[in-house]
Amino acid sequence: MVSDASGLLTLLKRGVLRRCPVCARGRIFRGFLRLRRTCDRCGWILEREPGTVTGSMYLVSVATLVFAALVFLAGWLLTDWPPGLQIAVGVPVLTLVSLVALPVARGARVAIEYDTDVQTGEARRADYEERAFEEFEGS
User: Fold this and answer.
1) Segment 99-108, tens digit of pLDDT
2) H or E stretch including 98?
3) Where are the alpha helices (DSSP H) in the chain?
4) Residue 41's closest CA among 24, 17, 56, 57?
5) pLDDT tens string 55-65
6) What residues does each domain of the chain span?
C-alpha cells in the first residue's frame, strides 16, 4: 500500500497519464480505450478480470450527468438561447467530455487497483501468474 498521500497522487498521476502505475514507463492502453492485459515494460497485470471497466464507466456516467446539469443550468441562466440551441451545443460538449474522461477514469482505476493489490498482498506479475497456471496444469 502507498503509505502517504504523495505516493497515491504519484500512482494516480501515472494512471491518468496512461502509464503503468508500477514502472511509469509502460503504456496501459493499446488504443484509445483498449486496456492492455499486461504492462509492455514490466509485465504487471493491468486487466485482472472481465468487467473491471464497469466501475470506470459508472464514475464517468455520474460525472457526465453532473456536468450536463451544470452545462444546461448555465445555458439557461447565462444565455437567452432557445432550448433547441442549448441542446445542439450541449450534447457535443458532453460527448467530448465523456470521451476524454473515460480513459482518465480507467487509468485512475488501474492505479487504485495496484495500490489495493499491494495493500492486500495480491500483487502479481504476468510471469508469476503464468508459472502458477503451468503448475496447476501439471498437477
Assistant:
1) 888 888 888 8
2) helix 83-120
3) 5-16, 53-78, 83-120, 126-138
4) 24
5) 777 877 888 88
6) 5-138
